[in-house]
Give the backbone structure.
Amino acid sequence: MSLLFRKLGLRLAEVSEHYEGVMGVAVKDLTSSEFFAVNSDEVFPIASTIKVPILMEFYRRVEAGTLDTMMMLTYVEGHKVGGSGVIKTLTPGAVTMPLIDYLTLMINVSDNSSTNYLIDLLGMNQINTLISSLGLRETYLARKMMDVEAFKAGRDSFTTPRELIAMFQELYKPSVLSPYVCSETLKLLGKPKEGMVQGVIRNAVPDSVDVSDKSGWVEGATLDAGIVYQPKRPYAMALLAKNIPSSDLHMVNTLNILTEAARLIHSYFEEVSTSTPQGRKLLRDSV
């Protein structure tokens, strides 16, 4: 591990230690393969970030020829569910869209109604089979979005910082899934998002740098994970928090702390992408 990367790790560990709740951080340099994590194997609620493997399974079916992205689907009352999204505000029976638009809404506005339809369409077991094929053991989909009864019965969806990094590393450099599935997934994850759906990673990275990520939040927990395409030095990061104090009513303090961790990570990659291995700044113009 390089000295500068080790220093980054110490700063991230300090941020985590001073956070009132429980924080998880993982970062992987996709060029050098250096990896660092705080609470790497701690289990956290995955919230809406579970929509990433749903997206992956969707494109796997498209590539197999068993799913048509342009299949028309009419929104009906049975699709409606609370939480994030816009479909719940529309008039049942009056809106018909192609399947790809439901997929886009699932990611770009984290639409829960779209997500639940897609879970029914793809099958929860099949989505979990895909997750298992990636070697992930703590990441799984246990219930549909906003299924309060399932939650009360003890069923919830989880992940770890290490496994989120593994998932995004697979998307960046496929070894199990096809390049088509991974590239289409990253392309949709890279579309602009707004509000909390934008996530803390995007808050810490300049607009000129592309990001493919998916954030999520549930009561008492929030996270964001993805790939930052820093020129010459792309990297993956995962930022998670749970046991968010009740005093942090709207997660403002938590989101600020996670954003600060993301900023520290990005500052490191900005530095190493503009310096030689010996620490000298690269010249803007060749000499």
Q: What stands out?
A: The mean pLDDT is 94.
